[in-house]
Amino acid sequence: MASEHPLDPKALHKLKNFAWLDAKQLTVLAANAASTRVSRGDSIFYEGEASSRVYVLISGVAKLSFLKANERVLVGLVGPGEVFGASSLLPEATRPFRCDAFTDCTVGAIKPHVFVDTVVGVPLDRLSRTLEMTVGRWWSMLLRYANFVGLGLRERLASALLELAVKFGVRDSRGTLLTLKLTHADLAELVGASRQRITEQLIEFEHDGIILREGRRLIIVPEKLYQIAQSETSGAARSTRNNPR
């Protein structure tokens, strides 16, 4: 991004999405924001970055996307007045998407604690914990389905099992035991595949030592599943580093 400059309070006053805020709130936001001109095609932030700022698009159009199988998938376009980079409102979050300038843009960047305190009137930590226990689950689901785009069954199933392990897993010497009993049909619905294909893939995972069975429960080896789940994104990440925007 280009060099930052102070944000003109009048710029926020003109945005319809901020019309409900009073003059004092708008003045405080502007005083604590940095304004940046971003040329078409340049990046505002990248996937995987620490979420440290909330952004407001003052003018122009930006686009959110992510990289799958070396192809960039468009998630949506951001218009003037929209607030984006909301992952910074969640605890210890990283950017799930990349944001580029679709046209020449002016972007306002505000520290999350200033934005929340000024707009909502509560400490950031309190809002973050509230969001985590309410919309955090739905945010995770959105990201899961977005990440499924362009992935094969092997990668989708590995990602789903890793997510289940976080919520319903207990570590033991063999890996992580899933305490939730799931049928092959349940897993098929979870990743959008037929029961038969899930059965075939689980047999392959078991043969390769990626999962083990204990009765009707599964024991997964997270390290091996993680390698599978990241097989698409690792190549994409290398491509991004070798071709910076």
Description:
42% of the residues lie in helices and 25% in strands. The strands form three sheets. The protein has a five-stranded antiparallel β-sheet. Strands 3-8-5-6 form a four-stranded antiparallel β-sheet. A four-stranded antiparallel β-sheet has the order 10-11-13-12. The protein has two domains: 136 residues, Sandwich (Jelly Rolls); 83 residues, Winged helix-like DNA-binding domain superfamily/Winged helix DNA-binding domain (Arc Repressor Mutant, subunit A), CATH 1.10.10. The radius of gyration is 21 Å and the shape is elongated. It has 245 residues and is α+β, with helices and mostly antiparallel strands.
SSE arrangement, N to C: EHHEEEEEEEEHHHHEEHHEEHH
- What share of residues are in beta strands? 15-25%
Number of H- or I-type helical stretches: 10
CATH C-level name of the largest domain: Mainly Beta
- For the residues shown, what is the average pLDDT? 85
Q: Count all strands and give the number.
A: 13
Distance N to C terminus: 10 Å
Query: Uncertain runs with pLDDT below 50, 5 residues or more?
Result: 232-245
Q: Helical percent range? A: 40-55%
The count of domains is: 2
